[in-house]
Amino acid sequence: MTTTDIPAATARRTPPPAAGKGAGRRREGAAWVFLSPWVLGASVLTLLPMAVSLYLSFTDYDMFNPPRWVGLRNYTQMFTEDPRYWRSVGTTLLYVVLAVPLQLAVALAVALALKSVRRAKGFYRSAFYAPSLLGASMSIALVWRAIFNDGGTVDNLLGTGGWVTQPGWALLAVALLTVWQFGAPMVIFLAGLQQIPAELYEAAAVDGASRARQFVSITLPMLSPVLFFNLVLQTIQAFQVFTPAFAVSAGKGGPADSTLFYTLYLYDRGFVASHMGYASAMAWVLLIAIGAVTAVLFRTSRAWVFYAGEETR
Amino acid sequence: MTTNVPTAAPGSQAAPRRPLPWRRVALHTGLLAALLVMLYPLGWLLATSLKPADEVIASLNLLPSRLEWGNFTTALDGVNDVSIPRLLTNSLLIAGGAVLGNVLSCSLAAYAFARLRFRMRGPLFAFMIATIMLPHHAVLIPQYVIFNQLGMVNTYWPLILPKFLATEAFFVFLIVQFMRGLPRELEEAARIDGCGPFRSFALVILPLIRPALITTAIFTFIWTWNDFFTQLIYLFSPEKFTLTLALRSFVDASSQSAFGPMFAMSVIALLPIVLFFLAFQRFLVEGMASSGVKG
């Protein structure tokens, strides 16, 4: 580690020195000048669209004719009359609970292995990280489809047939593409591991704690904030996966709707079938669902996330 | 067993050579094996892009018997009569605009949040953080409606304009974190010398946050380059397509005879990312690491 450009861990907040009243007002004005692009973006491209999509979710809207108010019909149709909707919910949930824990487990395992490596550590770190940058691309999604197709590498190796052509297996192929991109959380784990004071391990070793005991009693608690960060981030991202599902199923969500991810169905309803009102309702349910899952994660975090030096925050 | 608890200070003195402990050998063997599996898809991609058509399906060998560069010549002709150089230019134009927009707007907003005092700073900062987690889909359709009303669908504006308005809050947060690590004394000295907030931003802060700006630029480039969803809904004339969208046309054509050219094009599409990665890997890895630790 020769770099110096990580934001120093010692970010202190010193109160700005008292300035004259005129200067204070001028600085406040200056702040709004700096903020103006963000304020414009946040209001016109975030808040306003959220309000508009909430309104559209209660309408029938095809982009050509003015929206027609239909009350809760989109929602009732979604929840009670649309089996494909529920299939997309099931697919997405299954994918999230499959891909995220698996990806984080691999990331943590590799980070732990890399921690004690001295030689070529930087090389390993970069090499394992590379798929995180490439994996979101259409190119890799196409490679994935070919490798997991009938006659592809996996079929030849395991004789299972192509995964992407079988309803029971297609989702797993997509999940493995997510696991393949474990480098980003791994790098974050590694940075977290390096911040654990070595004295803790020394003291534990003196007390005769085994390596397994050290892992459970030191590494896991000290790493829990980073684990939590990764969990929240990857979960939110997993709910929104689109490109691999699109590539693997040629945009159809097949075979037999087994890769019909929520976002894929939303795209299909809104932009293929031109049911913008219905798609807006779907978007709002997704927003609420992600918000709820995040809230639950934060709520449970009190029980298992340990912040050393909590009093400074 | 407990000797390799990390007690050694980084860059510790050369210890007397011991025989290679089996643990370390096993560790490196394991890591290299994992790496091999990880990199297999990339090797497969490269090999397939150079395979003659008849070997793609029939042959189980990973390596082609001879290198078929014709795949790349075919790929250069592009898709739907739009050539690769054109597609590449389109992709670069969008990614370049996005990089410029993000670096500019996010650093401006970050400076205000990190260093200036204004009313509602706390709530606004919290709101900004919340938008990092906001799913893109919640604003997608109305944004589309807005850009449609403005006559901007099938132009690059919907892909570039939002970046100039700091809509990617992740980068605002990244730069704020970086600025908080800078000593305040420099700006105070600048203020005593008569610099207002604008000059102290331009002359003191901007040069100091260069690493954060580079990280922002590279991530923006790669994410925009890889982006598929936004381009898919906003662009529909083939001459405006990006490389990603052109590749998409191969998705529907499932015949394996087009495998060679398709994966040659995939290689071309990945090349800028690989080059960026090789050139800036330190910034990427450190930038990613610092986003999580001390978050």
Helix content of chain B: 55-70%
Quaternary class:
heterodimer
Distance between the termini of chain A: 28 Å
Average per-residue pLDDT of chain A, rounded, comes to: 86
Number of discrete domains of chain A: 1
User: Can you tell me the residue ranges of chain B where pLDDT is under 50 for at least 5 consecutive residues?
Assistant: 1-16
What does it look like?
- The complex is a heterodimer of chains A (313) and B (295).
- Chain A is mainly alpha-helical and 313 residues long.
- Chain A has one domain (74-306): MetI-like (MetI-like fold), CATH 1.10.3720.10.
- Chain A is built from 13 helices and two strands.
- In chain A, strands 1-2 form a two-stranded antiparallel sheet.
- In chain A, helix 3 (83-115) packs parallel to helix 7 (170-180), helix 3 (83-115) packs across helix 12 (262-272) and helix 10 packs antiparallel against helix 13 (276-304).
- Chain A starts with 20 loop residues before the first helix and ends in a 9-residue tail after the last helix.
- Mean pLDDT of chain A is 86; it is low at 1-20.
- Chain B has 295 residues and is mainly α.
- Chain B folds into two domains: 23-68, no CATH class; 76-292, MetI-like (MetI-like fold).
- Helix content of chain B is 68%, strand content 0%.
- The longest helix of chain B has 34 residues, at 259-292.
- Residues 1-16 of chain B have low confidence and may be disordered.
- At the A-B interface, helix 1, helix 3, helix 4, helix 5 and helix 8 of A face helix 1, helix 4, helix 5, helix 6 and helix 8 of B.
